[in-house]
Predict the structure.
Amino acid sequence: MTVHTSQSDLAARILAGDRRALARAITLVESTRADHRAQAMALLDELAGHGRQALRIGLSGTPGVGKSTFIESFGTMLVGHGMKVAVLAVDPSSARTGGSILGDKTRMERLSRLPGAFIRPSPSQSHLGGVARRTREAVALCEAAGFDVVLIETVGVGQSETVVAELSDVFVLLLAPAGGDELQGVKRGIMEAADLIVVNKADGDLKATATRTCADYAGALHLLRPRPQDAPGFPKAMTVSALEENGLDAVWEQITTLTDWRRAQGHWDARRAAQARHWFGEEVRQALLARLETPQARERMAELARTVAQGEVSAGAAARVMLESLQERGDSLDGGADSA
């Protein structure tokens, strides 16, 4: 593929670790404009094969659990250890306006000032899974820029937030001291996806409660079916105090223990390959869905929907007609491209 000179220059600046170039590139991949998407694809192709890999850590947690405080304390500690840390924080978008507060830079002021850190808030744009549509591409850009660790924060905790596990090498579920009904409220799907459950706010009056909560989750983890990618003793639960910065080194030690084991056993490469296949499938599905958004497709959908509503044809039969019309239009477009 021929890459525009500006894209080659942008790629070179990203590989050199230029933060402004990285921010510009992430803005480019997040754009929905067709010309920007073409430029983004050219840029990602230019950066493909750079050979750099960051440790991708997915973070999810209930609202108010202290995710931003944890990320700031944890990221600051990693930078203090000489690592370059990127934070991709996904803020929830308004379903009505599509707007987003994007306040993570203000909530992580101390970390944002460190030269070894890069914080990028992105709107979820109502995309299920707690991650923005193009977070995967933003992660790839951060890896190309030479970051050692990429922290991916999701908008919340729930069944759909397990999507972040398809982006990360290690998935950390951050929870607050609780028990009983609150323990039951944590979805089984996200529990099964977690590699580490970290109970935050283990300080002051909540310290004893946090310890009990950690024990409850540890017991719940023992009931889950073992996974091939689990090192001995994983998944596990532990406590931290992000506010007092206690237990952060222990969390990092467990993460490195798990990743070292996965690399040695071949699970790291296998997981990355499986994730690549997953996102290839997602891109195909999204491209097919985009074909339904053309004016012609919307008009045809509306016509068929009226016939279904009037009972003239079944929903299944109308769907087949719609798919056939999309196929015919796609074939004609392909034929035109070939003949050109």
Notes: The longest strand covers residues 55-61. The beta strands are 55-61, 85-91, 117-123, 149-153, 170-175, 196-199, 236-239. Residues 1-50 form a domain with the Single alpha-helices involved in coiled-coils or other helix-helix interfaces fold (CATH 1.20.5.170). The chain has three domains: 1-50, 51-265, 294-339.
